[in-house]
Model the fold of this input.
Amino acid sequence: MGSFREATTLTELNEDEFGAVLDAEWSVGGRMHGGYLLAVLGRAACLRTEPEHPHVTAVSASFLEPPDEGRAVVRVRLLRRGRTVSQVGATLVQDGRPRVEAHLTLGRLDDAGPWWAGHEPVVLPAEQDCVLASVNAPGADFPVPLMNVIEERIDPAHLAFAFGAPSRGGVIASWQRLADGSDWDPLSLLVACDPVPPVSADLGLPGWVPTIQLSAYVRRLPAPGPVRVRLTATDVGGDRMDEVAQVWDDKGRLVAQSTQLVAVRLPA
Done:
């Protein structure tokens, strides 16, 4: 098992291009994990805007075509360098084809708490009382190598789908840690913003749910320790679903959030 930093390491090819090696462990059902791909793009953007703006604070990405594990190139375009933020366009290219296209806003985060917050942290049983997700989980149609590198413990109340009786509440909540023992940072939080299993599992919708578009905000530097993640569905129809993820750190502060549009297979 490699670390998150190793899996997102880049080689500078020139000022605006970086070589990447996409790590197969950061995948789900044979497809590279979307949050991991955003982190790779984010690292390239940070390298372009450091030291003034070292942190990804917002990203909006379209997933054009699934990349494979192995070598890829990240092309970045500095769109604007301002006093408090920089904006960068980034494209993940493999075999000469664009696979992911993103727009990123970068700045400098601190660990100050919010002036006002409208959501309380999700309430979960203690970590040791939640169910550790595995690569070959009950009810899954495909392996999830991501669970080798993310230690995820799911609220038992949200696991009925694994035994053929989904609650249809449209919520899955969990504790998450990086399995390499490192603390969460603004880049790795992008992985937590794209949690698995998808909330469609709790709705009784089987199969792969590829991401079409994902937007995420990183709000502050997370405290050391695990994060709590709540994934909810907001609307399902027309073979599409949108889901919202919220991530709280060990101090109970919202540190990241995301909204994504995915494709789903609805019952006939």
Q: What stands out?
A: The helical segments are 4-7, 34-49, 189-192. The chain has a mean pLDDT of 95.
